[in-house]
## 1
Amino acid sequence: MQRVELAEGLIWWPGYLDRAAQEELAADIGTALGRAPLFTPRMPRTNAPFSVRMSNVGPLGWVSDMDGYRYQAFHPETRAPWPDFPARLLALWTDLSGHPAPPQAGLVNWYAPSARMGLHQDRDEQDFTAPVLSVSLGDTAVFRYGGTERRAPTRSIRLASGDILLLSGDSRLAFHGVDRILPGTSTLLDEPGRFNLTLRRVTPA
Ligand code: MD3
Ligand code: FE
């Protein structure tokens, strides 16, 4: 298993999940989305829609609307609690995060082929000492990352289905984004596009 340290604390395991494991996780996510459908987040203030659609699993979920970015325990449209973490997703955190406390939020991002995510930092959590773990499923994404200041130079890698990233230490507050999806690069899903699953802690343990 290849383990690549892209920057201090930014670890990449290309092809960590084999095809069978990807299929199982994709099925778990399909089940969760049956209970907590994808929603379209909106930018605070402008109310402009994100091109990425989202849902969550676990006790807390990330949402964004006119009132701001936040974590909350229920779906913004159905008002139902988020589905439980799939056990297979929790196992990846145990195996790879190096963090003693369990994740609290499992954000599910869905990228249709035209979706993008602009360069940003993840700073809505109260505990930056905990890492973030990211799993890619479906079509390859062109992922860009830089430093902790927006003007720092950036580099790009292609995140393929089954790849895992760990964002820890000095990279926990790195700027990052998704420039584009490369449709037709994976046969995992029934439609073109990509899921990204991120596991996070929100509050101090
Ligand atoms: C680097 N998601 O949900 S995952 C996000 O592919 C997000 O959907 C992207 O950025 C996606 O916030 C990138 C990889 C990732 C996740 C969190 C990070 C990279 C990160 C936090 C800090 C630094
Ligand atoms: Fe992010």
## 2
Amino acid sequence: MAQSPTYVILMGPPASGKGTQAERLQDVLGLSHVASGDLFRYNLKNETELGLKAKVYMDKGDLVPDDVTIAMVLDRLSREDCAKGALLDGFPRTLAQAEALEVALADSGNSINLVLNIQVPTKELISRVTGRRLCRDCGASYHIKFKRPKEEGVCDKCGGELYQRDDDTEATARRRLEVYNAQTKPLINYYSRKGSLANIDGNRPIDEVTDALKVAITAAL
Ligand code: AP5
Ligand code: MG
Ligand code: ZN
């Protein structure tokens, strides 16, 4: 009998390292990386209606409305490459999103297996946000101090050009943090009550965070 799909959520405030760790964990887990922010940026790059709508919210550091976000992510999860499940990054971010995901998974007899909550102090988050650089072609993430590419401005993986996200200014990062505290933080309790939450200290070098995440994954799955 086919094994039932596995769903793992990477949670944490802006710039806590969700994307960085997901890049490494997707192979360990053998799951597709589904990041709502990346999906919005992909749509924006391709100038779709969805992308242009999302940009208005993203530039301010606000959340894109639930109906649009939920529909986009559930559609992504229904694709062939998510047949074994997914490593979710940046979704769910509101209680309504968490409930919609739960209902959609339950419809096919599935559920969330594990929620990994990466914890990092605010001061550290601001320096991570403002120093981040991303590859225009493959989306890989770098940092001007903490994860430097071999050649400045060039992606190690694909040679693509590195750029700074429009919402990676200090002012927008502070707004994103406010939004996180008001709308996303309550999900920590939500998943803790369900017994699926593991807290991870994200305030240490990237490799050490990866090791801690792997330990939590091995213990839970
Ligand atoms: P999204 O793209 O999800 O942004 P975010 O949550 O703010 O998270 P980030 O991508 O900024 O950070 P990350 O945790 O992935 O960190 P990273 O690994 O890059 O969302 C953007 C916007 O889209 C939202 O504001 C909203 O408008 C919209 N949106 C997205 N999802 C939505 C949803 N579900 N509902 C509604 N709206 C939604 O690391 C950051 C930097 O730090 C990098 O430079 C990295 O190299 C460095 N770094 C990582 N780990 C370490 C470490 N351990 N030590 C030192 N440096 C590190
Ligand atoms: Mg990210
Ligand atoms: Zn690249």
